[in-house]
Amino acid sequence: MSSSSKCEIPLTVNGEKYSVIARQADTLLFVLRNHLGLTGAKPGCLNGDCGACTVLMDKTPIKSCMILAIEAIGKSVTTIEGLRDAPIQRAFVEHFAFQCGYCTPGFIMNAHALVESTPNASEPIIEKWLESNVCRCTSYFEIEQAVKSVLAEKQASKD
Amino acid sequence: MVSFDFTYHRPSSIEEAVQLFASLQRQGKTPIYYSGGTEIITLSRLNLVFADAVIDIKHIPECQSFDISQNQLVLGTALTLTAIEETNAFPLLAKAASEIADRTARNQITLGGNICGQIFYRETVLPLLLVDSDIVIAGKSGVQQRPIHEVFQQSIQLQPGEFLVQVKMNAAYLTMPHVHMKRRKQGKVGYPLVTVSALKKGNELRTAFSGVCPFPFRSPKVEEMLNARHLPIDARIDYALQQLPEPILDDIEGSAEYRLFVLKNTLWDILTELEEAER
Ligand SMILES: Cc1cc2nc3c(=O)[nH]c(=O)nc-3n(C[C@H](O)[C@H](O)[C@H](O)COP(=O)(O)OP(=O)(O)OC[C@H]3O[C@@H](n4cnc5c(N)ncnc54)[C@H](O)[C@@H]3O)c2cc1C
Ligand code: FES
Ligand code: FES
């Protein structure tokens, strides 16, 4: 890696290839928002606590405020802008699972990873995953209903 | 947002990492080993960490190892807490890992980072102390294996340029009866008020603590009192609590009195659970 603090960072985000010149110390959240204009992932606490900045890296949810952009080289990053009418997005609308909407992209990315990776998730598993995100408007009940509705749809289509 | 600049290095072998550290130091830099990076990034915002070069150890194959044989379990220090939980090779460690932070953060926090971090709870250390694990350390003088009791005394004791590669433990411990109880002031995520891990080796009860003092510990004196089976449980607990290595923590997470109350009840629950299982 070059010894100057800025360098070229090749990234794959939402299936598209980008190359940005950024500081090696820049977080993925900062680069997504300030270099790529992808402002869906939100800065909240910037401390790993709230989950507003959640994106997927190789389908695994991560908090983009506490990972470097340079660590994403060779990985596939998905942000809320990369989801196109995913079942969980529809379910959030149908279940009124947000009020101000600030936490929504983070919740959706985490919930999307959950329903895709664990379609038979039990109640404790759902609870454990959703604990990673904070909703200051307290839409927790509706969010849980939205997640459960997608899981139920997946079960029904399997039966 | 990290307020200062650093260079990022991604060695693919132990030797490369150690050499990089030495050569960066020779250039007058302040290098730091980087694993999950979550603490380095979040504490650097608060100016509690400084480095002008980070050496990411996640791409070193030995740091990602997961090997279980008849005699031994080997865990790479760059394994995430989610991986430790899901592989569940050592159920007590899996349980301790599964209670740290939250599910998404555990996809990033690593075993080595939790052992070596500044944030003093370091809850994965508790099971590792109970099973007398060994730590594989790389440094200038090569790779050595040392008992955890020697290298972890309140915090990890490393020479400059050394890093943790693996943790090894005797497989006989993995299935022994155990309990892990983490008590928080509220909610199901976050730092503990007190955490107690316990393991029974034959008739001997072993216990390790986090959140009680500003470091995790296992104490022979505390264990001696808890194992004084000729006494009733409440007397054993009272005597054990007189043997804590330092006065109990008194901070924003909980007053000393409250912590003591919770700790007493937690020990009571643990002793009754493990001893009732004998009957
Ligand atoms: C949201 C959140 C909640 C948390 N909750 C808890 C909790 O409930 N309980 C708890 O115990 N902890 C908790 N923590 C603390 C967390 O476990 C530590 O901060 C840990 O250090 C993070 O691991 P990491 O792999 O990201 O470390 P990094 O940020 O990579 O490193 C942390 C420190 O350890 C050093 N280091 C890392 N790996 C090695 C190695 N292999 N050899 C030598 N040095 C090394 C680094 O140089 C650095 O000084 C929480 C952290 C967060 C962000
Ligand atoms: S902004 Fe990343 S967890 Fe809060
Ligand atoms: S909808 Fe406002 S923070 Fe969740």
Concise account of the structure shown:
The complex is a heterodimer of chains A (159) and B (279). Chain A is built from five helices and five strands.
Describe the structure.
Chain A: GO terms for molecular function: 2 iron, 2 sulfur cluster binding; metal ion binding; oxidoreductase activity. Chain A: InterPro entries: 2Fe-2S-bd (IPR002888), 2Fe-2S-bd_dom_sf (IPR036884), 2Fe-2S_ferredoxin-like_sf (IPR036010), 2Fe-2S_ferredoxin-type (IPR001041), 2Fe2S_fd_BS (IPR006058), Beta-grasp_dom_sf (IPR012675), Diverse_Oxidoreductases (IPR051452). Chain A: Residues 7-83 form the 2Fe-2S ferredoxin-type domain. Chain A: This is (2Fe-2S)-binding protein. The complex is a heterodimer of chains A (159) and B (279). Chain A is of the alpha+beta class and 159 residues long. Chain A has 2 domains: 6-81, Ubiquitin-like (UB roll) (Roll); 85-158, [2Fe-2S]-binding domain (DNA polymerase, domain 1, Orthogonal Bundle), CATH 1.10.150.120. Chain A contains 5 helices and 5 strands. In chain A, helix 2 (87-94) packs across helix 5. Chain A starts with 5 loop residues before the first strand and ends with a helix. The mean pLDDT of chain A is 96. Chain B is of the alpha+beta class. Chain B is 33% helix and 25% strand. Chain B is built from 11 helices and 14 strands. Chain B has helices spanning 14-26, 38-44, 81-87, 91-98, 103-106, 111-116, 125-130, 148-151, 220-226, 233-241, 256-276; strands at residues 7-9, 31-34, 53-56, 66-68, 72-76, 134-139, 142-147, 152-153, 155-156, 163-170, 178-183, 194-201, 204-213, 215-217. In chain B, the strands form 4 sheets. In chain B, strands 4-5-10-6-7 form a 5-stranded antiparallel beta sheet. In chain B, a hairpin with a 1-residue loop joins strand 8 (152-153) and strand 9. The longest helix of chain B has 21 residues, at 256-276. The radius of gyration of chain B is 19 Å and the shape is globular. Bound molecules: flavin-adenine dinucleotide and FE2/S2 (inorganic) cluster (2 copies). Residues 98-103, 135-137, 139 of chain A line the site of one FE2/S2 (inorganic) cluster (FES).
